[in-house]
Design a protein that fits this description.
By secondary structure, the protein is an alpha+beta fold. The protein contains 20 helices and eleven strands.
Length: 407
């Protein structure tokens, strides 16, 4: 029995990056031997075990054969005869197909170290095209390592394009796709993830609503970058630079989908794009079964982001409606995330990345003013039921009028 550290742990150590998860592969062992040593089996598909003390995953060396569509369409074969090289060749990228023993001796049959030095994301073998999830994984690695100068090898991009055109991407489950998308959006340069998906034709398959934004112009006075797709990437980039949470990043990606529906004769204006985009945002949300908080914020940001930009001009009554829509009284955090998404949208424009956004503090102040209205005095005056609701609304409106006059 020989045990090797494999994959990301080896890659990140060689890159000088912190190693978080460690995967181990066991060569020359049987399931019975692993159980005898106290390892606990997990999963039914192939033999993976948890270490009795550390809880880390140890997998028996295995080969795999394509047996159906999609990410799960594989038959695995594990036996003591499977070599380390046979196990490594089924991996996606050369930089993930290295192993090291307990003395840190490197096994690198597919030249992963050479590709690390060349800053290339390159597939290990033609079997790359058997797993459609790899398109998303490679785009995610491109987003993670873009800051180190990594790019996707042209021949790997060609295979990703082949996969995108094959219909295999449609076989991915919403859960698997969302897991990759969510992880990619939380990388340092999530805009690169979208760019790579677009380059290989996968964006058109997975998110045609986002793909449709590229080539759609906006008024240059507000958008020096002009192209709506380029603007969306910039907004996502700003969200990452400002360390925004996943909810905000997802909303940033989808906020302008309505502009993809504007007839060409109306370009570069996009009248009512906020309302038109809601059905598209809803469709993307449902396609990937995004978590509820991501879904809700994306829809609210899509509908109200221009309200955010025009906050200083809004009438008190409109401002009150906006606050009610977000339920700022019970869910203050969601309104904070809306403000953040609006600010990222304002900064995601060529040459305006450092602009100030006074609307943020103004909106926070408005929320505080509305929340400061006390209900108890109204109850003491005898208001109840619908009348109490109207009385609270009147008092909040009064508070917002006073706030606007002072601001």
């Amino acid at each position: 029995m020989q045990i090797y550290k494999v994959g990301g742990a080896v890659r990140d150590r060689l890159l000088g990056r912190p190693v978080t998860d460690i995967d181990w592969v066991v060569v020359g062992a049987t399931t019975e031997e692993m159980l005898a040593k106290g390892f606990r089996p997990v999963g039914a598909d192939f033999p993976v075990f948890l270490h009795p003390k550390s809880g880390e995953e140890y997998a028996l060396a295995r080969t795999e054969r394509k047996s159906g569509r999609g990410y799960g369409g594989f038959t695995f074969h594990a036996s003591p005869e499977v070599t380390l090289e046979e196990d490594l060749i089924r991996r996606d990228l050369t930089i993930n197909a290295m192993a090291e023993d307990d003395q840190q001796n490197l096994t690198d049959p597919y030249h992963g170290q050479r590709d690390l030095e060349a800053r290339l994301l390159r597939h290990v073998s033609p079997a790359f095209t058997e797993d459609p999830l790899r398109v998303l994984r490679v785009a995610r690695f491109a987003a993670r390592y873009a800051g180190l100068g990594f790019t996707v090898a042209p021949e790997t991009l060609a295979l990703m394009r082949q996969l995108s055109e094959s219909g295999e991407l449609e076989a991915l489950t919403a859960e698997r796709s969302w897991k990759e998308i969510a992880r990619a959006l939380m990388e340092d340069q999530p805009q690169v993830f979208i760019q790579v998906l677009r380059e290989c034709g996968a964006l058109k398959v997975l998110m045609p609503e986002v793909d449709a934004l590229f080539g759609v112009p906006q008024p240059e006075a507000h958008h020096p970058e002009i192209d709506t797709g380029v603007h969306t990437l910039s907004v996502l980039e700003q969200a990452a630079q400002h360390k925004q949470p996943l909810t905000v990043r997802w909303a940033c990606l989808l906020h302008d989908l309505g502009k993809g529906l504007t007839p060409e004769e109306e370009w570069p204006r996009h009248i009512a794009h906020e309302h038109k985009g809601l059905k598209l945002i809803k469709a993307v949300n449902e396609r990937f079964k995004a978590p509820k908080d991501c879904q809700e914020l994306a829809l609210l940001v899509g509908e109200y982001h221009t309200h955010g930009h025009r906050a200083l001009e809004l009438k008190p009554s409109t401002l009150l409606e906006l606050l009610q829509s977000f339920d700022v009284y019970r869910r203050p955090q969601r309104f904070e995330e809306f403000i953040a998404a609006c600010e990222m949208d304002a900064r995601g424009r060529k040459g305006l990345e450092q602009r100030s956004y006074p609307q943020a503090d103004y909106l926070r102040g408005a929320a505080t003013a509305a929340r400061s209205v006390a209900v108890q005095p109204l109850l003491e005056k005898g208001f109840k039921g619908p009348e109490l609701g109207e009385a609270i609304k009147r008092e909040r409106l009064k508070a917002l009028k006073a706030y606007k006059e002072q601001a």
